[in-house]
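Ticket #4471: complex job returned nothing on first submit. Input attached below:
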Amino acid sequence: GALVYQYPRRTICKSGTSMRMECQAVGFQATSVAWYRQSPQKTFELIALSTVNSAIKYEQNFTQEKFPISHPNLSFSSMTVLNAYLEDRGLYLCGAKTGGAYTQYFGPGTRLLVL
Amino acid sequence: GQQVQQSPSSLVLQEGENAELQCNFSSTATQLQWFYQSPGGSLVSLLSNPSGTKHTGRLTSTTVTKERRSSLHISSSQTTDSGTYLCARSSGSWQLIFGSGTQLTVMP
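Support reply: We reran it on our side without changes. The output follows.
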């Protein structure tokens, strides 16, 4: 079956440092990957959409300078939170799908705590 | 305004009771998904139901596309059903827009 793994599941970083998180698709081709964030007491909001071999599209309030994303192949994507501060706390979710399919598969998320 | 609205925001039940969760969206959805988020935060996809009625186990989802609403019915609730239930829709492009969720607590 189709699965999405995310690493690490939980991480703590010091304020001002950076944190890289990974997303791996197994059992299907992750042509497109979406990264979401759920801040404390809030719902999920889209950070960016990435399609392999195409430009990454960032939503308003999120930038490549802050959240650089790599999507080098059909099974892997990574996102880094640069210069993390308290407002970057939350659960970061990776969702992936193949081509024109509607079904998205989600990882369990990476929970980021910033001290 | 908020594109996906869920109600109620929280719900407390006794074990064995049924739960009815509602989701209203502001524009036509080509994809409508229900998710369960555990107290620990992990997200699990429950049902993908852009229209009509779908069943899986104790869960039944009914989506009326023209009326831009979907419901999730949980029958014979169990304490392990406690958590947050999220509705998410997409239309056209595939990124999902999530609602704020319904926090369900099932008491023993």
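The mean pLDDT of chain B is 90. Closing as resolved unless it happens again.
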